[in-house]
Amino acid sequence: MSYPDLLSIPIALHIPASELTALPPASSSEPREPDDPTPIQELVSATLASRLYTYVCLPLTTPKWKDRWSRMCLQSPLGAGPSSGEDGQALGRDEQVEKEAEEWRLHPKFEREEVTVTRLEETYSLIGMVSAWLELDSPESGIRYDSELALRQELAYATYLDVRTVVLPPPRNRANVADYARAINAILNDSSFGSYMQLAVRIPVSEVEHRTGGSPSGLGPGKMLESPGMKSPQIVLSPEAEEGGLDSAWEMWDVIRTVCGYNSRLSIVLDLSPPFPLRPGAMDRWSAEPIRHIFLPATSFIPNAKGYPVLAKANQTFLKEVMQFLPIFILSKTQASLHNAGGSKGYAEYVRFLEKTSVPLQAMRTEGTLESFASTYMDRVQAPLQPLMDNLQSSTYAIFERDPVKYERYEEAVYQALLARGEQETVICVAGAGRGPLISRAYKAIQRVEGPKVTIYAIEKNPNALVTLQERNALEWGNAVTLFFGDMRSVELPEKVDILISELLGSFGDNELSPECLDGAQRFLKDDGISIPSFYTAHVAPLSSSKLYNEVLHQTIGDEKKNAETPYVVMFQATNVLSGEGGGVRGGCGTKVQECWSFEHPRRDLFVDARGLPFSNTHNTRSAHLTFHVPHSGVLHGLAGYFEAHLYGDVSLSIHPETKAQKSNNMLSWFPFYFPLKDPLYLPANAELDVHLWRMTSRQKVWYEWYAESFLPVPAQSPPPTFGFITPQSTGAPNTPRQGSTPVRPPRPSPMLDASPSAEGHAAFVDVLGRGELSRVKIGQTSLHNPGGRSSWIGL
């Protein structure tokens, strides 16, 4: 079964202003009835009728608006004196124009010839584009102010015409991106623009331009605006900027979305204009961002051997991956005849080709895959099950029983365990039988072995599920299974068993209290008895995902603070693991995904009472301190949790991203675990992240606590081991002892990254051991989450 209509990639055609100006104006065309389509309507209808495109992307304004705005707003301000033109001649300030500009600032409005669309009917399937020449981050405060007024005017007009998605002008100036972000945040919080309009910020991923100052597009008092068309915008950095352009583009977006409070109406138009970045891993961080549009001009394509437009391998790989998010592809310059074959249709047809070869997207379309099963659960936070406290519904059991992989793995483990026992009679206990899927698989394994007698006991605490077990026992198992009702920690069996089977694992391995339950059930085992599973491990990795941060932050139920201190079960999609493969700058970091702790069953070293039950649960506490290398700058929103479990022999289960395909591919039963952060933690490139995680317990409950610190490796230099003296510094003379002065130790270097060097020129960060090795400076931390289990816990 496939889902082409639900999971088809939408494509939009960008029609530039130059093509729109060639259309006959509605006001000067032949007489027509009020209901007759306008030239714009006819153009949009013809584009959509080709069945290549789902949307049309149009600029909201014409060049006439740009001309008027630049004439009004690019004059020298009052009191600044005359400005000079390109010939060096002084340009006088036109008081009439100044008056016109002030009137516009008080009451902004358009003239008919300054807008491209005028009717509601023309905005059907329309993506509007705000004037790209507006500079909300100009170094000139006057230009910033007038650009914001113009932006609000254009968005007010788009609101009037019910345009649902608007592409905002790109940020260009790293030094003033906070001004850009403030303006957008003000609009998002202004009810006059409605609550439905989606604002998409166009972000270029190409390398950036370094300048010493001035406006990125040359705007300034006395200068007329040049038309940038739809060429890729250039981000401007100061000459001192150390970060590469790719980091700066992402950091500008990070500033914007952070200032805007991760507003769900704010998204990205990722501009893939050339040159495409080649640095490995540079594009990974964008997969964790709200990419709802991909801007793909014809200039991004290269000709293949036959002259058809294709994309380079790096572009293909990235686009095939992000297609699982179903972004709208905006194709531009398709009429420019840049390639010898394919024509204007060739670009859309190539996107369809990528769609058919996108592995993640095709997996979502293929029945029986994990991606298809989880397609409606992607990036949706769900509270983990509490099977000890709650009795599950039959529908919940039914969902988990749809997983053929897990139960096939269990059957194989039981089969191998029976083979290993040879001709011995075997007693099996299924602890936590649910509706009986493990019992059925145990019988299949028994039939495969065709060995000696096997006795099966089953324990279930859910009284409702017990009815189903009784029915299946009568109809399917010939009443051969002895059923016991109650908690496995208190039920008594008539004899010891050889094999104890359970499926109590959670997404983090132990989060559904498998250790506590099996500690109470291992008393059923003979001295040489085995448990299936025999051991399992929990793993974590640092995760970035603005989608998940929003999901946790904006839940409609529960307290915001408690929600941010509650672990969740999530099928990850729009996420990015921030950690690298290990080592890092100092060589001391662990792997990309690291093990926290493990549990083994049966545990032979337990101190138990006369019934075989542990006296306390302190032996099930755990703690982990892990260090990750973060190769590219990013924002930490939480921790991803996974587990691996060994059943028996060579049979295992895994949701670990690096081993799941080999051990239990397409297993449906468990989504990854997610530990959220209350506040995002920014991590610069080559940072080190220390993650602390605890599994705590009391007599009534089990809970997790988590905390993280960030560090930056720095050269460690030792200062001379001499004493300094407090002396006057006004003369600028070297420090020399005054008579009667008291020798003091030099002040400790500041722990902050921006600390200035000392007067002697030594580095601000020193290796106090004097070994000349790399040291670390702390740059950030989170709060301790869920102390004492105040927000979330699992009841015993």
Automatic annotation (TrEMBL):
Gene Ontology annotations of biological process type: methylation; regulation of DNA-templated transcription
Single GO molecular function: protein-arginine N-methyltransferase activity
Residue ranges occupied by any PRMT5 oligomerisation domain in the UniProt entry: 536-794
Domain PRMT5 arginine-N-methyltransferase, residue spans: 371-532
UniProt domain PRMT5 TIM barrel: residue ranges: 53-356
Pfam families for this protein: PRMT5, PRMT5_C, PRMT5_TIM
Compositional bias annotation for Polar residues: 727-742
UniProt site (Critical for specifying symmetric addition of methyl groups): F400
GO cellular component: cytosol; nucleus
Active site: E503 (proton donor/acceptor), E512 (proton donor/acceptor)
Key words of the record: Methyltransferase, S-adenosyl-L-methionine, Transferase
Cited SUPFAM superfamilies: S-adenosyl-L-methionine-dependent methyltransferases
Annotated region described as Disordered, given as residue ranges: 77-97, 210-231, 727-758
Binding site residues for S-adenosyl-L-methionine: Y397, K406, Y407, E460, D487, M488
Superkingdom classification of source: Eukaryota
InterPro entries for this protein: Arg_MeTrfase, Arg_MeTrfase_PRMT5, PRMT5, PRMT5_C, PRMT5_TIM, SAM-dependent_MTases_sf
PANTHER family: PROTEIN ARGININE N-METHYLTRANSFERASE 5 (PTHR10738)
Family: Belongs to the class I-like SAM-binding methyltransferase superfamily.
Name used for this protein in its record: Protein arginine N-methyltransferase
